[in-house]
Design a protein that fits this description.
- The protein is of the alpha/beta class and 294 residues long.
- The protein has two domains: 191 residues, Rossmann fold, CATH 3.40.50.1100; 92 residues, 3-Layer(aba) Sandwich (Rossmann fold).
- It has 13 helices and ten strands.
- The strands form two sheets. Strands 1-2-10-7-8-9 form a six-stranded mixed sheet. Strands 5-4-3-6 form a four-stranded parallel sheet.
- Helix 1 crosses helix 3, helix 1 packs across helix 6 and helix 6 packs across helix 7.
- The radius of gyration is 18 Å and the shape is globular.
- The mean pLDDT is 94.
Length: 294
């Protein structure tokens, strides 16, 4: 596997939790898998037109990294309130940023505004090649733990859950797929309870990957692959970031610690042999210091 599993906790604790440390990828997150897969399926003419996406974080960085390897230009739409540290990280990979208001960005996303863009446009959640690339995370996990009982996955836009869930269903139907969402944005549980996507309130969180609604094209797939949704409180999420850093010497962003925070809510008797996807490690020094000191 590209990223081997690592056991969480001390051996004598027998927690049965294995960490898939995707923050060890070249750009610090799992996103490079799907982005590279998407880009490799474009024609030469499509690449020559340039690349575009909407992201203020890991997708934009992965797109820039892949664009450099393929020799093409890239840009991304970002919320106009994006912290400078995140913009600097994106610019480091040569990606141009186009700031827009959050309302305009949401309108763009849900009106499929990318269909009118001149560049090759990557939909971070719904593109089939992106989802297929995400699925390789689960393929690698099952190579090491073929009899895995539960896989805990952070829920943001839903592309990672959809990808790994599809792979689990194809390769090991007995493994339970548990999506973990933050209390401040319960879009997935809301959709599953309502039988379809619904808009929910979205508050601030250390995990900043959430959307206030499950996109229409992903809902049927998510409904078919998710066995359970667990909701994590903000203090539980911060505790998980702290425990990863102190006990496992792993720096995870808020979203990256989300799966572990969910798994720690559940006793081993219920979840069995467990893997948690630590999806990324893009956390600023000041934020990390605040979490560690409180």
């Amino acid at each position: 596997p590209l990223v081997p599993l690592r056991s969480y906790g001390l051996p004598e604790e027998s927690l049965g939790i294995h960490l898939k440390l995707e923050m060890l990828q070249d750009v610090g997150s799992f996103k490079i898998r799907g982005v590279h897969n998407w880009l490799s399926h474009l024609t030469h003419a499509e690449r020559a037109a340039g690349l575009n996406t909407h992201s203020a974080g890991n997708t934009a960085q992965a797109l820039g990294y892949a664009a450099l390897r393929f020799g093409c230009k890239a840009k991304t739409l970002v919320p106009d309130r994006t912290p400078q540290a995140k913009l600097d990280a994106i610019h480091r990979y040569g990606v141009d940023t186009v700031p827009v208001s959050m309302d305009d960005l949401l309108d763009f996303i849900f009106a499929a505004g990318w269909t009118e863009q001149p560049e090759a446009y990557l939909n971070p959640w719904g593109d089939p090649q992106m989802i297929a690339g995400n699925a390789t995370v689960a393929v690698e996990i099952l190579q090491e733990r073929p009899d895995l009982d539960s896989l805990f996955v952070p829920m943001g836009g839903g592309g990672l859950v959809a990808g790994v869930g599809s792979a689990i269903r194809a390769l090991n139907s007995s493994c339970r797929v548990v999506a973990v969402q933050v209390d401040s944005c319960q879009a997935l549980s809301g959709a599953l309870e309502a039988g379809g996507p619904v808009w929910v309130e979205m508050g601030d969180s250390l995990s900043d990957i959430s959307l206030p609604v499950v996109v229409d094209e992903l809902y049927p797939l998510l409904e078919s692959v998710v066995d359970e949704v667990i909701t994590v409180q903000e203090d539980e999420l911060r505790d998980a970031v702290r425990m990863l850093a102190v006990e496992n010497k792993v720096v995870a962003e808020g979203a990256g610690a989300l799966a572990l925070a969910g798994a720690l809510q559940v006793g081993r008797d219920h979840r069995g042999d467990t893997a948690c996807i630590v999806s990324g490690g893009s956390m600023g020094a000041a934020t990390l210091a605040d979490v560690l000191n409180h």
